[in-house]
Design a protein that fits this description.
The complex is a heterodimer.
Chain A lengths: L1 H13 L2 H40 L3 E4 L15 E2 L2 H8 L3 E11 L6 E8 L20 E6 H7 L6 E7 L5 E12 L10 E5 H8 L4 E2 L1 E4 L12 E4 L1 H4 L1 H39 L1 H9 L4 H37 L1 E2 L14 E2 L5 H27 L3 H5 L5
Parallel strand pairs in A: 4-8, 5-7
Antiparallel strand pairs in A: 1-10, 1-11, 2-9, 3-4, 3-6, 3-10, 6-7, 12-13
Chain B lengths: L4 E14 L2 E14 L3 E5 L6 H8 L7 E6 L2 E2 L5 H11 E4 L11 H11 L4 H14 L15 H13 L5 E5 L7 H18 L2 E6 L2 H4 L4 E6 L2 E7 L3
Parallel strand pairs in B: 3-8, 3-9, 6-7, 7-8
Antiparallel strand pairs in B: 1-2, 1-4, 4-5, 9-10
Classes of the chains: A alpha+beta, B alpha/beta.
Chain lengths: ~400, ~230
């Protein structure tokens, strides 16, 4: 086997330009597959991290009626915060959020929104509650940059806010935008405004009540209390995981095209080699190699393309990928409005597992593609091969 | 010099299927070859010379009859056994040299020894010895494409001789060479035959080769027409 590897390497290097063309094409596949997967991995980890910091925390307790996909449930989706959870909120291990519906009238237009109240001193989420601590006779509100852009709102703007309290009575007041925050998580930004929790509780007539209780990241989950259901981070971030998975599948089409090109080149080279090198094959057999050894030699020759490609890819790919991992990759400004969690800059994440699996995948595929045409050698008549006669 | 019989052929027949029906290349050959012979199988094209050499070299098998080479019946050897026979005890020289194009002269000659799993030191010595017999020590690092036809054939002889095989089978070794190179090559082979008592069997219709043979077997239409000892 060692001899076959040695001979195969010698033959491969000796083939010169033909080998290097295959190797270059294959090395592109290595780099693009690793890069693309790295971008997706980076995106996923950044998105999940952003969601944890801005939205989901270390898991959430939902008031049992609360269903984010059913706006009609919101009128009932509130209840008093249980004592142990209230204590966790006071200690900074939880943040309580009250959710209700409302309407704003920016620039004379009517706009339905979600009103969310959050403790101004909470540190569980990155929502800047500290901004609430400004003196204002109006209802103080902070909004995300998407909400501000969609409604052409800016800090200091006054707009009318209308809501229904717990008895179903409509009420309205002047709301002042006291701050605009930037976040990559559209789920806490678009179509919603954030008020101080106590203010909203007062507006709604729901003192001490909340809809969602967000746990601090890595904090111990408190046993589920009656009327409150725990939702894990995995569950809350499932939509992002599913989306990345879907992107991975669509990325597989790209890999398939790339790999097909590279494999076609190798398959072609193998077929051509077997036709062009009939005399050589006959000579190997005459010198004492078995036909199966020659099949092995040609298969190894073909699969060594992937080894050379991995080496070449490492030479130019490691600096390139490392540079991108440190500088990140900017996405067009419009990507903010896609409604998906996506940072302005994505930093690709390359794991050893990703690199290992990619190399293994390409090597196995190359070996199979090299073996298929080489099987022909086993059926060759050595005397005809020695004469270089096509078989 | 010539002694024990190392090749014994009895009633050897070889037929090939062709588009026009069956073609009989060898038709009941009976021959024996002794150790150290310098023999030529001569005859016109299509007389069965190469087929006979291929069967002796275990590259092909008889359709009928027996070919026993170094005590092994060629028709009964499996793929691995015939490869082992070629690897260890047979050397081949071809009309078109069949050197491996991406290997240097040294590597080409070294190749049969690599298949025998010889250690580096021993291998190097044997390759250098072989190249020295053929006067190729200054071409060690050359590629086959940089050599003349005569030099290529000398490399091929060095490759066939490097493992000191019992039998060397040479199929039209001078067909692509001019007269001067042919004589040079043949003299080298005569010398190696004398020095190592290696059996040389040629398939040829070249008069220059015939002039060096000790025994000449004439084949016509797959049959032995004449088997004579020459005065060379």
């Amino acid at each position: 086997m060692k001899l076959l590897f040695k001979l195969a390497a010698r033959n491969l290097i000796g083939a010169g330009r033909r080998t290097w063309l295959n190797v270059i094409v294959l090395s592109f596949s290595f780099i693009i597959i690793i890069w693309h997967k790295g971008i997706l991995n980076g995106w996923e980890s950044q998105a999940k991290n952003d969601m944890t910091e801005w939205e989901t925390g270390g898991g959430q307790y939902w008031q049992s009626v609360y269903d984010p996909f059913d706006p009609f449930s919101l009128t009932e989706a509130h209840s008093a915060i249980p004592a142990d959870m209230d204590s966790a909120c006071s200690k900074g291990n939880m943040a309580s959020i009250l959710v209700t519906q409302g309407t704003i009238y920016p620039g004379g237009r009517i706009q339905s929104i979600l009103i969310k109240g959050i403790n101004s001193n909470q540190k569980v989420l990155k929502i800047p509650g500290a901004l609430f601590e400004s003196d204002s006779s109006e209802i103080p509100a902070i909004i995300g940059s998407r909400m501000a852009a969609d409604n052409r709102l800016k800090t200091g703007d006054l707009i009318t806010l209308r809501w229904r309290d717990k008895n179903g009575t409509f009420d309205a007041g002047e709301m002042k935008i006291i701050g605009i925050f930037n976040t990559n998580v559209p789920m806490i930004d678009a179509g919603q405004i954030w008020l101080p929790l106590d203010h909203l509780q007062k507006m709604m007539g729901m003192p001490g009540e909340a809809t969602i209780l967000v746990c601090k990241k890595d904090s111990k989950v408190i046993a589920s209390d009656a009327g409150w259901n725990f939702k894990s981070t995995e569950l809350l971030q499932k939509s992002v995981s599913d989306m990345i998975k879907m992107k991975s599948v669509s990325g597989a089409v790209l890999y398939l095209i790339l790999m097909s090109l590279a494999m076609l080149a190798i398959f072609d080279t193998q077929v051509l080699s077997i036709f062009r090198r009939q005399k050589e094959i006959g000579t190997y057999i005459a010198l004492g190699m078995t036909r199966f050894q020659v099949v092995g030699l040609f298969t190894i020759e073909g699969s060594l393309n992937s080894v050379l490609a991995a080496i070449l890819a490492a030479i130019y790919g490691i600096p390139l990928l490392a540079l991108q991992a440190s500088k990140g990759m900017s996405f067009p400004g419009g990507s903010k409005d896609f409604g998906i969690v996506m940072a302005d800059k994505i930093y690709p994440s390359y794991s050893l597992e990703l690199i290992g699996i990619t190399i293994l995948f390409i090597m196995i595929t190359t070996t199979i593609v090299s073996y298929l045409p080489s099987r022909r050698i086993a059926k060759m008549n050595p005397t005809e091969a020695l004469r270089g006669k096509l078989q | 010099m010539e002694n024990s019989k190392i090749i014994s052929i009895e009633g050897l027949k070889k037929t090939f299927s062709t588009t026009g029906g069956k073609f009989t290349a060898l038709n009941g050959i009976n021959l024996e070859f002794g150790k150290g012979e310098f023999t030529g199988v001569v005859g016109p094209s299509g007389s069965g010379k190469t087929t006979l050499l291929n069967i002796i070299g275990s590259l092909d098998s008889p359709s009928e009859g027996k070919a026993i080479v170094l005590g092994k019946s060629i028709g009964e050897l499996n793929v691995k056994q015939s490869a082992m026979l070629r690897r260890s005890q047979l050397g081949f020289i071809f009309q078109s040299y069949n050197l491996l194009p991406v290997y240097t002269v040294f590597e080409n000659v070294e190749f049969p020894l690599l298949l025998l799993n010889m250690n580096d030191g021993q291998r190097k010595k044997m390759v250098l010895d072989s190249l020295e017999w053929l006067g190729l020590t200054d071409k060690i690092k050359s590629m086959p494409s940089q050599l003349s036809g005569g030099e290529c054939q000398r490399v091929a002889i060095a490759r066939a001789m490097v493992k000191k095989p019992e039998i060397v089978l040479a199929d039209e070794p001078t067909a692509n060479l001019d007269a001067a190179n042919s004589h040079h090559i043949l003299k080298s082979m005569v010398q190696l035959n004398k020095e190592f008592n290696t059996t040389f069997i040629f398939a040829t219709h070249d008069d220059k080769v015939i002039g060096y043979l000790h025994r000449k077997i004439s084949l016509v239409d797959g049959k032995v027409a004449k088997d004579e000892i020459t005065n060379n």
